[in-house]
Amino acid sequence: MGGLLGGLRAMGWDRDRIQREVCAACADHFGDMTFPFVAFKRGGKFSQNVRNLFGDVQIEDLWLPYFCISANLNRSELKLHTQGSLAKAVLASTRAPGVFPPIVYDGELHVDGGVINNVPVDLMKEFCNQGVTIGVDVAPPHELRPVRDYGDAISGWKTFWKRCFSAERVYTPSILLVLIRTLEYTGISNQHTRLQSADVFMRPDMLPFKRTDFHLAASIVEAGYECAKANLLKHREKVTSAITAL
C-alpha cells in the first residue's frame, strides 16, 4: 500500500483524490478469487485498477523522487524500483505472496517487498541523502487473540463446517491471515533496527480496523493524522531543544 499511495502522491494527487480513488480500486477486487493453485486471487481486477490509476507514467518522469521495493524470488534479494513503468513497479510491490500471483519482472518472479523489508526507512535514508526520514508502520503490533490448542492437525472441511454452520466456535486462524501476518512480521520484529534509520517513526493505532475496511477510510485517515500530528510535534520539540542547547 505504501508503494501505491506514494506513487499517486508523487504524481501530484491530493489527499482527497488518493483516498477516493484507492478505496474504489481496492474494494473492487474482492471477488477476484480463483482455484488456489498459485494464489487465492487471480490478480486481474486489482492489476487493471492499478494500471488505470498510473497509466503509462514512468518513475523517472514523476514530479517527486520516488521508489518502491519488491522481493525477487529468483535471486532472494530486494529490488529497488527507481525507473521504468510505475504501474508495473507498484504491482510488483503489492503482490502479497499466496494472496496474489507473483509479477514477472525482467523474466523473474517478484512479490511484495515486505517479505524482506516491510518498513524500508533504511533505504529511504540513503535515497534522500541522509535527509529527514519518516517511517510509518501500519501493521498491528499484536493481533492474534489467545488460541485454544486445537492439536497438531486440522481438517479444513471440519473447520469450514464449524465456522459456517455449527454453533460450536473453536477459533482457528485462516490461511489468508497467516500469510498476511507472516508478511508483516519483518516490520514488527525489526522495529528497533528501523528506529535507528528513521528520524520520526510512527505507528498509528490500526487494531480497530481490518485490512478490508475500505469503507472506514475516513476513520483510518483520521487515526493516521492524529498519530502524525503527535509525533511531528514531539520531533519539533526535540529539534528545538537541540538548537537551543547549541
Layout of strands and helices, then pairs:
Elements: H1 2-10, H2 15-27, H3 44-54, E1 68-72, E2 77-81, H4 86-93, E3 103-105, E4 108-112, H5 121-127, E5 134-136, H6 156-165, H7 175-189, H8 191-195, E6 200-202, H9 217-245
Helix pairs in contact: 3-4
Mean model confidence by pLDDT: 86
Q: How many β strands by DSSP?
A: 6
The profile of the biggest β sheet is: 4 strands, antiparallel
Low-pLDDT parts are none
**Could you tell me the radius of gyration in angstroms?**
20 Å
Q: Walk across the major sheet and give the strand order.
A: 2-1-4-3
Share in β-strands: 5-15%
Order of helices and strands: HHHEEHEEHEHHHEH
Structural class of the helices, strands and pairings? alpha+beta
Overall shape: it is: globular
